[in-house]
Design a protein that fits this description.
The complex is a heterodimer of chains A (292) and B (771). Chain A is of the alpha+beta class. Chain A is built from 11 helices and 14 strands. Chain A has 3 domains: 47 residues, Uridine Diphospho-n-acetylenolpyruvylglucosamine Reductase, domain 2 (2-Layer Sandwich); 116 residues, Uridine Diphospho-n-acetylenolpyruvylglucosamine Reductase, domain 3 (2-Layer Sandwich), CATH 3.30.465; 111 residues, CO dehydrogenase flavoprotein, C-terminal domain (Enolase-like, domain 1, 2-Layer Sandwich). Chain B contains 22 helices and 29 strands. The chains are: A alpha+beta (292), B alpha+beta (771).
């Protein structure tokens, strides 16, 4: 590992200036559970590491039924899944936050970091995508908002421009009869990287029988997490029956463009998209009905 | 739970210490962090060494330019293979002995060729690890890339590129001998063959025959502590090495051989070992650190990263097995044929002999033909892994037997019991079995509640398998016992404690001396401080070093009896010892406890110190058995282990709690091998998953409590009946889990790992209608 500068700014403005950094190779550090491992593994070389954990805006965590959820980019996963209001309102996000790594990792790793790492397998990303989360980004040219769905642009790549920092994620307050679920398939029970992961959310009608709208996001099956739009369109307006779910799960497979690697084959991954989509939709519907 | 088998020496005698589970002597240091492992050496002037590794799986080294690295500030020495005296003296040659110091030097630092991705080519010592790493990037190696011969299959093709020009195939019918040189140049380093009876006639007598082919993958031992060592080359030409290893005397011999110095000029100091499982039976960096220390004039510490452990050390062999077994209608096996091909990796020396000499040995079969091939290919040079070579062969044999039982309509345990080998029956190696507990293990399995418990629920299956283990031993162990005035004794050995052998040896001494285990203080010392002792391997330490320590302790009793005789003014023959008390046969009032007499030694002639050694051998064979219940998710292919019961004939459990730990640990490693572990290679031969994230060993969250069933059929060759326990448990799980998956899914798993995708594919292939 080469020598590098470590800085820990306390204001957003200073952090942006340090990230912009006059031609230096810079990288933001939140929990460090990806960045430090990648540096040691020589994935990249940097001149300056900007620790963003001391910036107040990045540590905000607020959740109310009226205003929804704001998660600062430096808030660790454990603070999210231990919050009882978040557990009730955003169970799909809690599913994802509570299965990243072990307890030590969850105490350090952040959802913001998971998103900025932009791995195709990032576990919180599909969970955020199906809940219409948006990214608050600050940079040398001011602030902007980007939907999570558009944030990742390739493996390890995203829309952040030079000097820009992810400040927070915002999720709208969930409507009535809304439910979300997230599932990951790994060959072991814990501590592994997704072979496939799937987030699903549904909004049911008043009778809780018909699907008003649904979202499905797939991870580890394309260069970025992707929405299964065909399956989503299919579900809109349908009765929430097993047959409907099966058909949607089949349709979701068409959104998957996986690769063969040490974590799984193309064939197995496409197959798993169907299995996990079915199970995640079942879970989301149960939650929308208040049955789980 | 303990089942006492036949009344042998071990089982019939009652013991005070043996068979209890005291706290280990090294426990406090280990749980408080005071224990010092390989990387815990620090001293003035210490440099940090790092190794440059080959990015190519097979290439000729045209040249290595180290000048830029040498010029980097902070760099104190750079080494290549040319710095090894043995490389200057000899070409790599497999003529005399296939495994030799020159070959080890070549694996520690490649000379003319690199033979696997990760093969070490150069090393740097610098004032910090980061500078050393930077320097590695400045070393220019000019490679001529050669075609990769990645698997045994590639290696055995006609006209396959040869890894070693000088390698010729040997043929042997004896595992302990190199055999004769056939002169045939190929990537096949050797063939081992065992024959009994008339194989053709045997199959003609069979009513049912099953023949299947199997493959297993490259897997690593997965010890937690990466390799780490420090070398300090003194101005007097003597070198001291601190290292985490299974055998300090082996390291001494290797360093002396490679550096062309006397063995007595090398002192190897053992550090605690954070897991080894056979993998630390040899070292990789000690000679490199020695060269760097010699060149720099400073001590040099080298610590591998996890990635280096995967890329640069020895896993165990990927293997191919073809197994054919025939039986008559009654279930009697009439003939068995086993064809084994094991990958050795870069240099000869796979454990194919371990597979060939054990795969069929639990059974009495009159007509047998076993062929084993040791094949080099462009992978890491394989190294021992817990019962080397046994699990692969058992994976094939125990699945074929399962299928045979099904075809015969027999209970799988009954088929095995019908053919079980007993004392005096000849194993396929031609060697008659000693007193073994195979039948007792099988009977215990059949009688266990798990065997007959109802298996409720869908997608579940129960599998059984046994595994024959032939333990090593007899390489030699030394022990010295010093009696302290306070009645404690120090037991000094050169046996690295991998698994609790300090306490198991101390307990045997305590049993002999009639004192408490806590009053025996076991020490593992360096090569200058104890007699020659072979490495800790082959499940031999509690047996071999235990025997040496027992013999030393008996000598202590004889010497102390003489002191008591002096005190009581009688002949030594008149002094007797029972239950920890010396007493006079002539005058029963004269008695002294061990502790009391220990306090009188200085006044009766001085301290008592006794040394002994043991080289008899005889840890012998044992049987392990498994019953396992699995659940397979038919949609994802994921296997969950629901219940696991592991049986082992241990002879006599000296420390039952640690014996259970060994049974559970070996079983766990076998389950990992069965389900998800594998070296995943790119077609060019690069390992794609060199981290514990993607090299998927089971975690505690993946397994239920493994119930260990200890069976004690005493080994007549040990005073307490000990057999050794470390390796047997890993032999049956591969087949047991596969048999269970078959029952749960209807699909036979002919290849490992049984990853979720592989299971779904097998189900689809074998039962197209089901999905």
């Amino acid at each position: 590992m080469q020598d590098f500068e470590y800085v820990a700014p306390t204001t957003l403005a200073e952090a942006i200036r340090l990230m912009n950094g006059n031609g230096l190779r810079t990288k933001a550090l939140a929990g460090g559970t990806d960045v430090l491992v990648q540096m040691r593994g020589r994935r990249f070389a940097i001149d300056r590491l900007v620790d963003v954990k001391n910036i107040p805006e990045l540590n905000e965590l607020s959740c109310t039924e009226s205003d929804g959820l704001t998660v600062g980019a430096a808030v660790p996963c454990c603070n999210i899944y231990e919050d009882v209001i978040i557990q009730r309102l955003y169970p799909g996000l809690v599913d994802a936050a509570s299965l990243i790594g072990g307890i030590q990792i969850q105490s350090r790793a952040t959802i913001g970091g998971n998103l900025c790492n932009s791995a195709p397998s990032g576990d919180t990303i599909p969970a955020l995508m199906v809940q219409d989360a948006t990214c608050e980004i600050a940079g040398p040219n001011g602030r902007r908002t980007v939907p999570v769905v558009l944030f990742c642009t390739g493996p390890g790549q995203n829309v952040l421009q030079r000097g820009e920092i992810l400040v927070a994620l915002r999720l709208a307050a969930p409507k009535a009869n809304y439910g979300s679920h997230f599932l990951r398939f790994i060959p072991r029970n814990e501590m592994d990287i997704a072979v496939v992961n799937v987030g699903a959310s549904v909004l049911l009608d008043h009778a809780k029988r018909r699907i008003v709208s649904a979202k499905i996001a797939l991870g580890s099956v394309a260069p970025t997490p992707v929405l299964a739009r065909k399956a989503m369109d299919f579900l809109a307006g349908k009765e929430a029956t097993e047959a409907t779910i099966e058909e949607a799960a089949e349709a979701a497979k068409s959104a998957a463009r996986p690769i063969d690697d040490m974590r799984g084959t193309i064939k197995h991954r496409v197959h798993l998209v169907g299995v996990l989509t079915k199970r995640a939709l079942q879970g989301a519907i149960l939650r929308a009905r208040g049955e789980e | 739970m303990t089942i006492t088998g036949e009344r042998g020496v071990g089982a019939s005698r009652s013991y005070k210490v043996v068979g209890t589970s005291p706290i280990r002597h090294d426990g406090v240091d280990k749980v408080t962090g005071r224990a010092r492992y390989g990387a815990d050496i620090n001293m003035a002037g210490l440099l940090h060494g790092k190794i440059l590794r080959s990015p190519h799986a097979h290439a000729r080294i045209r040249s290595i330019d180290t000048s830029k690295a040498e010029a980097l500030p902070g760099v104190r020495a750079v080494a290549t293979a040319k710095d090894f005296p043995i490389v200057q003296m000899q070409e790599l040659d497999f003529g005399g002995a296939q495994r030799n110091s020159r070959m080890m030097a070549d694996n520690d630092l490649a000379y003319r060729k690199v033979l696997y991705q990760g093969h070490a080519v150069a090393a740097v010592a610098a004032t910090s690890p980061h500078i050393a790493e930077e320097a590695l990037e400045l070393i220019k190696v000019d490679y001529e890339i050669l075609p990769t011969v990645l698997t045994w299959k590639d290696a055995m093709k006609e006209n396959a590129p040869l890894l070693h020009e000088s390698l010729t195939k040997r043929f042997t019918m004896d595992r302990s001998s190199q055999g004769k040189d056939t002169g045939v140049r190929s990537n096949v380093a050797s063939q081992i063959q065992f024959k009994l009876g008339d194989i053709e006639q045997g199959f003609r007598e069979a009513d049912v025959t099953v023949e299947r082919e199997f493959t297993t993958q490259t897997v690593h031992q997965g010890y937690i502590e990466p390799f780490a060592c420090t070398a300090s080359w003194g101005p007097d030409g003597r070198v001291t090495i601190w290292t985490s290893t299974q055998g300090i005397f082996g390291i001494r011999e290797t360093v002396a051989g490679i550096m062309d110095i006397a063995e007595s000029a090398v002192k190897v100091v053992p550090m605690e070992v954070g897991g080894a499982f056979g993998g630390k039976g040899i070292g990789y960096m000690e000679p490199v650190a020695a060269v760097l220390s010699k060149k720099s004039g400073h001590p040099v510490k080298m610590v591998m990263s996890r990635k280096e452990v995967f890329l640069g050390t020895g896993p165990t062999s990927a293997a191919f097995m073809r197994c054919k077994i025939g039986a008559d209608k009654s279930g009697k096996i009439t003939a068995a044929k086993l064809h084994l091909v094991y990958e050795a990796g870069a240099y000869p020396g796979s454990p194919v002999g371990g597979g060939a000499s054990t795969g069929l040995s639990a059974y009495k079969i009159d007509n047998v033909l076993i062929d084993g091939y040791d094949v080099v290919c462009n992978k890491q040079k394989t190294q021992a892994y817990r019962a080397p070579g046994h699990p692969q062969a058992a994976f094939a044999v125990e699945q074929v037997l399962d299928e045979l039982a099904e075809k015969l309509g027999m209970d799988p345990m009954d088929l095995r019991l019908k053919n079980v080998a007993r004392q005096g029956d000849r194993a396929p190696t031609g060697v008659p079995h000693a007193r073994v507990g195979f039948k007792e293990v099988m009977e215990a399995m059949k009688a266990h509640p798990h065997y007959s418990a109802p298996l409720e629920g869908i997608n579940r299956g129960r599998g059984i398998a046994v595994g024959y283990r032939l333990n090593g031993g007899g390489s030699g162990s030394s022990a010295t016992i010093n009696v302290n005035a306070d009645g404690t004794v120090n037991v000094i050995t050169g046996s690295m404690d991998l698994s609790g052998t300090r306490v198991s040896i101390a307990m045997q001494v305590a049993e002999v001396l009639g004192i408490a285990a806590e009053d025996v203080l076991p020490q593992v010392v360096d090569t200058d401080s104890v007699g020659w002792t072979g490495g800790s391997g082959g499940s031999r330490i509690t047996f071999d070093t235990g025997r040496a320590a027992i013999s030393g302790a008996e000598d202590v009793l004889r010497k102390m009896a003489q002191r008591a005789a002096l005190l009581w003014d009688v002949q030594a023959e008149d002094v007797q010892f029972k239950d920890g008390v010396f007493f006079c046969a002539k005058n029963p009032k004269d008695k002294l406890s061990f502790k009391e007499l220990a306090g009188k030694l200085m006044a009766t002639g001085g301290p008592v110190t006794c040394s002994a050694m043991d080289k008899q051998g005889g840890v012998g064979a044992q049987l392990a058995g498994n019953i396992v219940d699995v659940k397979v998710d038919p949609e994802t292919g994921k296997v969950d282990i629901l219940r696991y019961t592991a049986f082992l004939d241990v002879g006599k459990a000296v420390h039952p709690a640690y014996v259970e730990g060994q049974i559970q640990g070996g079983t766990l490693q076998g389950i990992g091998w069965a389900l998800n572990e594998e070296y995943f290679f790119t077609p060019a031969g690069a390992m794609a998953n060199s981290s514990f994230l993607d090299y998927r060993m089971p975690t505690t969250l993946d397994l239920p409590m493994i119930e260990a069933v200890i069976i004690e059929v005493a080994n007549p060759r040990h005073p307490f009946g000990v057999r050794g326990v470390g390796e047997g448990p890993i032999v049956p799980p591969l087949a047991a889990v596969a048999n269970a998956v078959y029952r749960a899914t209807g699909a036979r798993m002919y290849g490992l790992p049984m990853s979720p995708g592989a299971i779904l594919e097998a189900v689809e292939e074998q039962q197209p209608k089901k999905r």
